[in-house]
Amino acid sequence: MTGDHYFSASPASPENLRRIRVRLAGRDVEMTTAGGVFSPDHVDSGTGVLLANTPPPPPGGNLLDLGCGWGPIALTLALDSPHATVWAVDVNERALDLVRRNADSLGVTNVNAVLPEDVPDDVIFRTIRSNPPIRVGKNELHGLLERWIPRLDERSDAWLVVQRNLGSDSLQRWLSATFEDGYSVHRAATGRGFRVIKVRRHGTPPTGPVPLP
User: Structural domain of residue 185, as residue ranges?
Assistant: First the structure.
């Protein structure tokens, strides 16, 4: 036993590369995964629920997969929106390497698989899709969401999938209380014991006097 977690920066466990067949963006594909990353043998149930219950992504702009793992969400975004720039963000270097391998295998060139600190500060996102790392602990998770959700563009949405028995309802309440001004939060879907939470950033209201017609 190594004590590795899928959110370890540099897993010490054997890489143990493997090929799995999965369905992404309506097509059957073969992907590379490895030990020391989240759900290496299949698309996990939560990610499946998220992918089945979110609308098509925006056709352009910057799109974010937060906590990308080996890349099922990021790669789906890239296949569905080939003219967008997809940021696949994770602290796990092995996971980022797998995303790059899998993007190459699919022939998609619009994925940036990077560490959180490597996303430029001026990048804002047309959508965020995430199966967030609940097991990092409440404080870490809240800090993660407080860092990234404010980087949503106006009139744009974050979609988060969280297992009900791992605190989805309490997380929704926290999101509603934390992102109160200029946002709305609601449960968008349920399935297989998971909740899909939608966080909408609304447009900034105009300031100053309204010009006369």
Answer: 18-30+42-201
